[in-house]
């Protein structure tokens, strides 16, 4: 039996029942693909269901306020995906009358839609014969065929796309794309796959050559920086606090946070307390400063590890533009701040 036929047979017997697989409507397929970039299905599913309930059509999403979209996205990470999603929804609703482009080339022109997402929508919605190539596909193909090309190399995508295109049955590209992605997600997993139950264990080159653990080859390492965030949580006589919007480019763009003191290393109480009094709340009479968490919360992002501390500052009088505890929960925050608010 050919690779493709065996793969599709496995898929039909083992596939998960996922809501975006039961439709050819581009809107939920696009939503799911954007959400599942760098996100596992189990983590992304509740967000997908919330979005489709709150925004059942692309017009509903387009008409929403960005803060509502970011609030609903809260905790999913990579917030630029949410901002691009919202802007693309507005473009489709306002410029394309709510109709998604009907082919790979035009889908690729949408903001936030790369080669993989465009291929997924084109094949699942329009049955266009375009192969999807993501981490799952790199892994399955490199192991089965024993390909030692560095997948971080610029030429790798072209090589693997050509191979996937060759294997893909042109009369049903959608099922092949779904099958190879699912096989990588459920069976040919990154670490310690159970090759004893794999349908390809008699023909997989990596298994025969004992290279399952080393394929695919990926040489490029992500450089991770370390940052130290001190969040200053003020409370006035009314119990109100102060927040600010992150407008600079970079992490958490357009999300909210407490006033931030970023330092070059973890600082002690005396240092932070002095900066609070001199640089942040010098206009107020400070009654007390308290370290909320003595040990930093390590919040890991793809390229950054944040060491986060919260400092509670009690001031006399009433702060300018104060927010009460109830209204605070309406705003979109990074998940590390949201968790702090919920714990209070």
TrEMBL record:
EC category name: hydrolase
A family per Pfam: HHH
Cofactor annotation comment: Binds 1 [4Fe-4S] cluster.
Family annotation (InterPro entries): A/G_AdeGlyc_MutY, DNA_glycosylase, HhH-GPD_domain, HhH_base_excis_C, HhH_motif, MIG/MutY, MutY_C, NUDIX_hydrolase-like_dom_sf
Cofactor(s) needed: [4Fe-4S] cluster
Keywords: 4Fe-4S, DNA damage, DNA repair, Glycosidase, Hydrolase, Iron, Iron-sulfur, Metal-binding
BP term (GO), one: mismatch repair
Start and end residues of each HhH-GPD domain: 35-186
Example of a GO MF term: adenine/guanine mispair binding
Domain of life: Bacteria
EC number: 3.2.2.31
Reaction(s) catalysed (UniProt annotation): Hydrolyzes free adenine bases from 7,8-dihydro-8-oxoguanine:adenine mismatched double-stranded DNA, leaving an apurinic site
Protein task: Adenine glycosylase active on G-A mispairs. MutY also corrects error-prone DNA synthesis past GO lesions which are due to the oxidatively damaged form of guanine: 7,8-dihydro-8-oxoguanine (8-oxo-dGTP).
Family the UniProt entry places it in: Belongs to the Nth/MutY family.
Name of the featured protein: Adenine DNA glycosylase
Gene source species: Flavobacterium shii
